[in-house]
Design a protein that fits this description.
Structural class: alpha+beta
CATH topology of the largest domain: Double-stranded beta-helix
CATH class of the largest domain: Alpha Beta
Distance between the termini: 40 Å
Shape: globular
CATH superfamily of the largest domain: Clavaminate synthase-like
């Protein structure tokens, strides 16, 4: 991808060798459409962008998000009463956060496309967030492992939200619709089962892949300051909140919807249901059979 030249009054600072950049020199509430287009291009290059010192109002936050697509609140986690319907607000002290690696809302057929977070308040120390580059995670697998993953799909569910009935099947390797690059698309929070493998094979491969994604060489770690706005591309990243803080941490987030997940290669194999539902003794086996039966 060609290197983008940002406006001369902007500062773009890369944060790691893998992904992430901090961008300053403007106000989010006063961006032109050309500058919005520049942010979109920067996001394609860096996958996650941070804009410190912004502190937008709720209306400005929502208006900025709508430049990237349709917005909606969280499908399962409730925000506090009176919050804007397109804003998900979370107040936490002494933790109370999802400290597992995940890509947002992959239990839906059309999951989150991007997320835009405003760190309203945060402790001086702790509560950093990490992101992983899913392009790099796929590309640095061995060639035989890349070939295997290209032919697989995985079942995702909302069990962490107490809604295991909310399920979706996605390719293990997806193509990003704008960059055309393959990305590893499984995560420890929502991915339950490799569809084409038996239960024990699935467990081994998923454990390997979800651990592989967290390698430090694929990641960036960001220390928050109040007023920072962050936007990340859910189609090629995972993130993890480090639950090591005490004190008030308030975030407001809008979620850009409309993602359509496309496989890097269609699976040549059938789902592993050789013995039918009566022999599916594990919860994930029964869940897989239920999902596939309803899909058909």
């Amino acid at each position: 991808m060609d290197t983008l030249i940002a406006p001369p009054h902007w500062t773009v600072k890369r944060l790691s060798g893998s992904l992430g950049a901090e961008v300053s020199g403007f106000e989010l509430a006063a961006l032109s459409q050309q500058e919005i287009a520049t942010i979109k291009e920067l996001l394609m290059q860096h996958q996650v962008l941070f804009f410190p010192g912004q502190s937008p109002t709720v209306e400005e936050h929502v208006a900025f998000g709508e430049n990237f697509g349709p917005l909606e609140g969280h499908p399962n986690l409730k925000s506090e009463t009176g919050t804007h319907p397109k804003i998900f607000k979370l107040e936490a002290s002494k933790g109370g956060i999802a400290d597992e690696w995940h890509t947002d809302i992959t239990f839906q057929d059309r999951p989150a496309l991007m997320s835009i977070l405003h760190m309203v308040t945060c402790p001086d120390i702790g509560g950093d967030t990490m992101w992983a580059n899913l392009y790099q995670a796929y590309n640095e697998l061995s060639e035989p492992m890349r070939e295997l993953c290209l032919g697989l799909t995985a079942l995702h569910d909302a069990h962490p939200h107490n809604h295991p009935e909310q399920m979706a099947k996605h390719p293990v390797v997806r193509l990003h619709p704008e960059t055309g690059l393959p990305a590893l698309y499984v995560n420890e929070h929502f991915t339950r089962r490799i569809v084409e493998l038996n239960a024990s094979e699935s467990e081994v491969l998923l454990r390997y892949l979800t651990n592989w994604v967290t390698s430090p060489k694929f990641t960036v770690r960001y220390q928050w300051t109040a007023g920072t706005v962050c936007i990340w591309d859910n189609r090629c990243t995972q993130h993890f909140v480090i639950n090591d803080f005490q004190g008030e941490r308030v975030i407001q987030r809008v979620t850009v919807m409309g993602d359509q997940v496309k496989a890097a290669r269609p699976s040549p194999w059938q789902p592993y249901l050789r013995n039918g539902p009566l022999s599916a003794t594990s919860r994930h086996d029964r869940q897989l059979f239920s999902y596939l039966s309803e899909s058909n």
